[in-house]
Amino acid sequence: MKILIVNDYTEMSRKAANIVASQIILKNDSVIGLATGDTPKGMYKELVRLYNNGDIDFTEVKTFNLDEYYGLDKTNSQSYHYYMMENLFNHVNIKRENINIPNGMAESIEKECEEYERKIEEAGGIDLQVLGIGRNGHIGFNEPDLKFEAKTHLVRLDDDTIKANSRFFESIEEVPTLAISMGIKTIMHARKIILLASGEGKAEAIYKTVKGKITPEMPASVLQLHPDVTLIVDKKAASLL
Ligand SMILES: O=P(O)(O)OC[C@H]1O[C@](O)(CO)[C@@H](O)[C@@H]1O
């Protein structure tokens, strides 16, 4: 595991965007795994800037998002689909057919999950996966559990996560309690992973990810077993390392 400790959120975002941009420059048809939440917003902003500068071209890029809330339509402003359009896709030349985000409204969730895995495989697997981390150590929406859930699946969100994500909703009651998420195996199959974290609130999760026991009770700890992971963490998130 490589650990880049940077000064602040801005530097974290710039470094992460540069890694994603290099990936696209070196392989124009890269398959990129994407995350949502507050953490990668600065990275998306920087990627849009690099695109506007003419430094990167998304024509051949394919993307797969980690997760989506169950029961939210893509037009719902709280959906991760909406988030991705707002923060990245509406501002770059990615082809709509190359964007993949789990459908939270799918009639059969089981089929949706199988299909998602199949599409990732068909695309040749994920070249670079971007991850954020929950305060409880979740990656994607893989919550602390007694076992590592392998593939894309339906997740019941932890009270902790519901509380943390309620900041994006009008009230806590509006936060969906279920989500579709790539599994740990799906994430671990990515050829390269970058995990971003900023702020004191993530310090304990980062400490346990790097130095803790590998256990499904701290999902991100599994990354210790991946051959090519880079953590890009600001000083506050790295404060317990
Ligand atoms: O970046 P935030 O908003 O702290 O969220 C942490 C993680 O939780 C999620 O919102 C749930 O998957 C991720 O998108 C994110 O990486």
Question: What does this entry look like structurally?
Answer:
- It contains seven helices and ten strands.
- It is of the alpha/beta class.
- It has one domain (2-234): 3-Layer(aba) Sandwich (Rossmann fold), CATH 3.40.50.1360.
- Helix 1 packs across helix 2.
- The longest helix has 18 residues, at 9-26.
- The two termini are 13 Å apart.
- It binds 6-O-phosphono-beta-D-fructofuranose.
- 6-O-phosphono-beta-D-fructofuranose binds at residues 35-39, 66-67, 132-134, 140-141.
- InterPro entries: Glc/Gal-6P_isomerase, Glucosamine6P_isomerase, Glucosamine6P_isomerase_CS, NagB/RpiA_transferase-like.
- One of its GO terms (biological process) is N-acetylglucosamine catabolic process.
Tell me the layout of helices and strands.
Layout (H helix, E strand, L loop, with lengths): L1 E5 L2 H18 L4 E4 L6 H12 L9 E4 L1 E3 L10 H8 L11 E2 L8 H14 L5 E4 L21 E4 L2 H7 L12 E4 L2 H5 L3 E6 L5 H9 L17 E6 L7
Parallel strand pairs: 1-10, 2-3, 2-6, 3-5, 6-9, 9-10
Antiparallel strand pairs: 4-8, 7-8
The protein binds 6-O-phosphono-beta-D-fructofuranose (F6P).
Family: Belongs to the glucosamine/galactosamine-6-phosphate isomerase family. NagB subfamily.
Pathway: Amino-sugar metabolism; N-acetylneuraminate degradation; D-fructose 6-phosphate from N-acetylneuraminate: step 5/5
InterPro entries: Glc/Gal-6P_isomerase (IPR006148), Glucosamine6P_isomerase (IPR004547), Glucosamine6P_isomerase_CS (IPR018321), NagB/RpiA_transferase-like (IPR037171)
